[in-house]
Amino acid sequence: MVQKKTLRMGVAGAGRMGQIHINNILETRFIAVTAVCSVIQAELDWATSTIPNVKTFTAFDDFIASDGFDAVLIVTPNHFHRDQVIASLRAGKHVFCEKPISPDTKSAWDVYYESLKFPELKVACGFPRRYAAPYVEAAKRIKNGDIGEVVALRSQTTDLIMDNDYFVNYIKTSGGIFVDCCIHDIDACLFLLGQDKTPATAYSTGTTKVFPMFKDYGDIDDGMGLVTFETGDVIMNVYGSRNNRHGHHSMTEVIGTKGRILINGQPRLINIDISDDSGTRMEGPETQMQVFGLAFKHEMEAFRDWILEGKEPNFNLKDAAKAVSIGAALMDSLHAKGIENVKLF
Ligand SMILES: NC(=O)c1ccc[n+]([C@@H]2O[C@H](COP(=O)([O-])OP(=O)(O)OC[C@H]3O[C@@H](n4cnc5c(N)ncnc54)[C@H](O)[C@@H]3O)[C@@H](O)[C@H]2O)c1
């Protein structure tokens, strides 16, 4: 039997999401973490004590110039993504970059066009819904024509309300609800649509009823966006909320000429219903990790198999750049009306 190669990963960023990816890789065969870069010493100490024989770096330039890994996993704050993806490609490494590929339209397309100069290198933007079983199954059925031609898509990401300093600080640099949160919905819709359509118009509105201070950061706590495409035959509607009382609830609906598919219609943690004196209820998830935890593992396995075996993945870098364009256009629509007025709608 031929011994399979192991894909060696260098990881830039070992914070909240970086540690989740590293722990997943440690549990996955034929992929290993050999280097970690972080600007936080406590995270490097965590990496050294968690990962066998890992090299650590505090400067990205030293990390990317070093040997010993074939691919870079970028899990740093969004505004570093563009330069770090491009530097990784120029250093001859494959790249897996966390969403968004970059937080603004120009830099997102910079990454896409730069990647075309390196056809021998693979670049993935991580969107776990592309590897979550219900989304993968829905995409297969839509492609098969089970619901006819797609007419409309609507998708939401609503997160458990977090009223603390960490969260309010996070919002300040997140890029806004449509780029940070609904980017998952936009990408999921593009994945389910399965066609390379060009967006034409974007309209959005929202409120700051729950977190009035978000207005100062040009953001909202609840918002809806409406997107059309140049072909004029498909509508996309996204809804994002930082204000969900019952936990995390991502759902997506695709309406076709012959039927519809609803994905994650009810926010179920586990498929049981409990009945007692107060009626019947089910339990929902609190976090997106409870819903998409397995999908994060599957996307990393897919990245490995893409590089080691040439297996076609569900990742799509053009969609990742397009998703940023759409998210940014929805933020622009919000700002064009004046964020202080959004409560009036
Ligand atoms: N797919 C998802 O659902 C999901 C969820 C959460 C976060 N994310 C994404 O993951 C990324 C990281 O988010 P997070 O919440 O883990 O952030 P975090 O602040 O917890 O961690 C950021 C990490 O980047 C490192 N870092 C900062 N500047 C650096 C630099 N110049 N060079 C190298 N490392 C540097 C920090 O040391 C830290 O390790 C973001 O792009 C975010 O959008 C994705």
UniProtKB/TrEMBL annotation:
InterPro entries: Gfo/Idh/MocA-like_OxRdtase_C, Gfo/Idh/MocA-like_OxRdtase_N, NAD(P)-bd_dom_sf. It comes from Lipomyces starkeyi NRRL Y-11557. Coiled coil: none annotated. GO terms for molecular function: nucleotide binding; oxidoreductase activity. PANTHER family: BINDING ROSSMANN FOLD OXIDOREDUCTASE, PUTATIVE (AFU_ORTHOLOGUE AFUA_2G10240)-RELATED (PTHR42840:SF3), NAD(P)-BINDING ROSSMANN-FOLD SUPERFAMILY PROTEIN-RELATED (PTHR42840). GO terms for biological process: NADPH regeneration. The keyword Oxidoreductase applies. GO terms for cellular component: cytoplasm. Keywords: Oxidoreductase. Residues 140-335 form the Gfo/Idh/MocA-like oxidoreductase C-terminal domain. Residues 7-108 form the Gfo/Idh/MocA-like oxidoreductase N-terminal domain. This is Gfo/Idh/MocA-like oxidoreductase N-terminal domain-containing protein.
